[in-house]
Amino acid sequence: MTRRNDEDLVLMTATRAEQERAVLTAATAMVDALLHANNPGLVRTVVEAAFPWVSYLSDEGAADFIDELITSLRAGSPLDNPAPAARTIEMWRHTAEVHADPELARILSTPSEGDFGSVPAPEL
């Protein structure tokens, strides 16, 4: 349903919502088991298959993403709330976008020359 000046709504059956929750719970359990398999190379391969942009992250960045992703999946799953994991994915995808552009990465990694003062609040 499209709403004027607001986010669109989606209507689904309770059965469908329960199926989606069960799939998310199963996926979270599989990723968790994979992480405990003690095979970091396999974990990285699986994560890069799901999120190809991870290849632009450093080894440390990829490890941090994987840790944050599983933490957010574990936390959100019992609450039936995918928002924490979605936010984690979005933030790390943006980080990878910066690393994918060498000029942008150089600009953002160059130390600034002091404080440029306060930033005004955006107009609403």
Summarize the structure in words.
This protein has five helices and no strands. With 124 residues, the protein is mainly alpha-helical. The chain has one domain. Helix 3 packs antiparallel against helix 4 (83-100). The protein starts with 13 loop residues before the first helix and ends in a 15-residue tail after the last helix. The model has no long low-confidence stretch (mean pLDDT 86).
In short:
This protein is mostly helical and 124 residues long. The radius of gyration is 19 Å and the shape is flat.
Major sheet characteristics: none
Order of helices and strands: HHHHH
Poorly predicted residue ranges:
none
Strand content: under 5%
Primary descriptors:
124 residues, mainly alpha
Blueprint (SSEs and pairs):
Blueprint lengths: L13 H22 L4 H11 L8 H18 L6 H18 L1 H8 L15
